[in-house]
Amino acid sequence: MPENVRPSDIPYRVLGNTGERVSAIGVGGWHIGLPYVDEPLSLRIVRTAIDSGINFLDNCWDYNNGASEIRMGKALRDGYRQKVFLMTKIDGRSKKEASRQVEESLRRLQTDCIDLVQHHEVLRYEDPHRIFDEEGANAALIECQVAGKIRYIGFTGHKDPHIHVYMLQVAAERGFRFDTVQMPLNVMDAHYRSFEHMVLPRLVEKSIGVLGMKSMANGIILKSNTVTAVECLQYALNLPTSVVITGIDSIQILNQPLEAVRTFRPLDELQVESILAKTRTAARRGAFEPFKTTSIFDATAHNPAWLGEEPERVRKLMAA
Length: 320
Prior knowledge:
By secondary structure, the protein is an alpha/beta fold. Helix content is 40%, strand content 14%. The chain contains 14 helices and ten strands. The strands form two sheets. Strands 3-4-5-6-7-8-9-10 form an eight-stranded parallel beta barrel, surrounded by five helices. α6 (161-173) links the parallel β7 (150-156) and β8. α1 (39-51) packs across α2 (67-75) and α9 (229-238) packs across α10 (251-262).
């Protein structure tokens, strides 16, 4: 465990309407499967985080060709699984593909139940329609939920807040309410195509759990030379987030969010405005949020087969 950090130092927040208590900081799954992070180190990162009081773990079916889930599954042996709230994401838009990906995630994570599964990368206006088709991915997640294989359902996306709003609208039209929504929340987002301004108030109003990501945009925001890592983390923590998920590729980097959350105190209006003033010019055109302005971060765009087939009724209509 890092020096001077005790599990009791980590604040916990309620995850929307679920009643679950989750650590204000969560461990991102992408980094622990990267080639330069060897497996022993990845297991050490996950277990050290848990021993330090972090209980929210993020992952995804497609991260590093499955290595991230496999490693996290190994780290959760020896009683660690019972200490955490485990989340992963699936890319499948069809019921068949979503079901297959959930089963694979269960095997990799070495668990019979995943606490939260989210529809990943809702980036396109057609995604909500494919997901909520009668033979779409949400039907698969509901079946998994009934079977006790997953507990809660959410969705993620990083491209455009308008698409998040549309996803919520399509879900509501079908009588479905998400438990969580994951999105970029950072010091740049506040100025450009803002999830904070467009989506966050809707989630708070509906008591949907807010999962903040890309607080530093994989370090890209720090390259603007306008803010520090601690400022980035604490700005996101100051928002009505349930969890701020951050990537960790070393024990040294793990110490950073642990210190940020341990020393966090709510920011007053002047402190918030000071941070936003420093980032306003750099954030203006989205240069430091390339996940919004390029396709580099769009894994499903580069791997469309992960989405599965279009709905059968649409294919029949096209063939008629």
